[in-house]
Amino acid sequence: MRYLLFALALGMFPTLGFSFEVDNRRIFSAQTESQVLKVISTADLDLFAGVIEAFQSQNPSVSVDYFEVSSTELVKALVEDDAQFDLAVSSAMDLQTKLANDGMALPFRSEFTAQLPEWAHWQDLVFAFTQEPAALVFSARDFDRQSVPRTRQDLIAFMRSHPMQFKNRVGTYDIRSSGLGYLFATQDARTSETYWRLAEVMGNMNAQLYCCSGKMIEDVGSGKLAFAYNVLGSYAAAQTNNQDDIIIVEPSDFTTLMLRSALIPKNAKQPQLAGLFIDHLLSFSLEASKAGDFPFPTLQRDVLEQETALRPIRLGPGLMVYLDRLKRKNFLKAWENAILQKQ
Q1: What is the pLDDT of residues 210-237, one digit of tens each?
Q2: What gap in Å lies between CA 240 and CA 12, rounded to an integer?
Q3: Which of 136, 140, 134 is nearest to 149 (CA)?
């Protein structure tokens, strides 16, 4: 217990001896003499805890040391600090792909990885295990389910006609520091020019910038924000304590789907154990009997064929286009010109 409390406290500060920052940390102790699986992840600890506990129920001799970090801190940990982890889980698909492309991941193959569709894995190095929408989240204090905008064009028109309702009450990612926010923004811009018009309107409303979905959802639920853009729908749906205060909308013009993914870092001490955990993650999508116990939306290729508005971000080298230094610099400059307007 003393060690566990120390670990939790440690999660509030930069990790000893390293520069990357930890948002949360928890050690899931094994029931017996154990191996330790070290996981670095962007997934919210409260949501992911059940996944870990389900793994331990099948592997009671495995302890899991779980570090919750931002996507940019995950890259810093593995690349700049060369920190040792056995598994890296991230919502930033482009950064995961770059890690693999730069030789930072070990290959893994199994019966489960062989069943993944082509767009859900890359070179036996990166493996998708969720399919999560970027959603609009509205305050029920400001909207009802019938009048809420359901396309980006409708949202632009609504904000322009109700400026005082939205002034200082629009939330979105600060894509300069949020890896997932940057991924969503670049994908939106590639899909439709409407994104830049929307960004300008949000900037004119003095958009509030956030690191992550959780705080945005909280501020929408409290009424501080009228709406938040490109929030992870899975996180919003998990906020059962304020479901009456928020309205979740998957835009009908197009809904970007992020694939949360896992890889085994090159310096993993327990690569076989990490592979076992990857199979555990994939089993929730590939074994229908387990899907109901998973806190995230599972991979569903049938849904993609039926719903043309759903636009999955596919794993592969194309994701690295906007990670080019010059392209990133130019994209961020355009974004800053749109969002950071003088009020």
Answers
A1: 988 889 999 999 999 999 999 988 888 8
A2: 26
A3: 136
Q: Is 147 exposed, middle or buried (0-12, 13-18, 19+ CB in 10 A)?
A: exposed
Q: Residue 215 in contact with residue 70, Cβ under 8 Å? A: no
255: which strand partners?
Answer: 310
Residue 201's nearest CA partner among 143, 162, 253, 145 is 162
Residue type, 267: N
Crossing angle of helices 325-339 and 179-191, rounded to 10°: 80
Residue at token pair 């990612």: 173
Q: What angle do CA 140, 145, 151 make, to 5 degrees?
A: 105
Structure tokens at 88: 């890296």
Tens-place pLDDT, residues 63-81: 999 999 999 999 999 999 9
Please list, in sequence order, all residues whose beta carbon lies within 8 angstroms of the beta carbon of residue 63, skipping any fewer than 6 positions away.
27, 28, 29, 30, 34, 35, 36, 37
Tell which residue, 79, 84, 89, 78, has the closest CA to residue 45: 89
Tokens of 180: 């997932």
Consecutive H or E run containing 161: helix 152-161
Query: Max CA-CA distance within the chain?
Result: 64
pTM tops 0.90:
no
> What domains lie within the chain, and their CATH numbers?
2-130+259-312 (3.40.190.10), 133-257+323-339 (3.40.190.10)
CA dihedral 96, 102, 106, 107 (to 10 degrees): 80
DSSP helix/strand/coil, 17? coil
Q: Which residues on adjacent β-strands are paired with residue 128?
A: 261
Q: Decide: residue 88, CB within 10 A, 0-12 exposed, 13-18 middle, 19+ buried.
A: buried
SS (H, E, C) 181-238: HHHHHHHHHHHCCHHHHHHHHHHHCCCEEECCHHHHHHHHHHCCCCEEEEEEHHHHHH
Q: 263 - beta bridge partners?
A: 88
